[in-house]
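To: structure subgroup
Subject: Chain for Friday's discussion

All,

I'm putting the inputs and outputs inline so they're searchable in the archive.
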Amino acid sequence: MLQREKSLNRFSKVLTTYIRFCLVFWYLWACLRCWVNPWNYFGLNAGYFNKKKGIFSKLDMDSVIPASFRLGQSYYDPDQPPKHYPVFLKPEWGQNSNGIVRVNNEKGYRAFGEGIGSTDMPYIVQDAAPGKKEFEIYYLRSPDNTDDYAFLSITQVINTCQNHHPVNSIHNRCTCYKD
């Protein structure tokens, strides 16, 4: 049984590497076909670069989301614990859920501050969503009509381990995505 698990794990790593390679290949191919510089992709969020902080601020980016669709967020302050738990503590600028921690109570909230020590990266406290389903919405605004979109993608994030308020990401083996 152990040998079978090792084989599956090896196959999973090879498959993941292959998928990543294909994504990069097809992205570069599409850029070449359209005569577009591939590095321009990274300029999509350039308007949200906070020069004062030296990062792409999540709070700045989220400010364009209507309040009725946005989860409550604030900067982490060890002296101002949230009124409701669980909450997620996340670096203001991170990638692929790196550094995100779920905190279930005030004791964990205060312990988090002791654990990070002094860091240059500010942390954000984000309320946990009340629903049981998680969706990622990605869209590109139309260059011709700013009230319309040129691309829209809605992806359901599913946690196969059935954890309550998990930190879903590509690094969590219980996370899968359904378009």
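Points worth raising on Friday:
The chain has three helices and nine strands.
The mean pLDDT is 83.

D.
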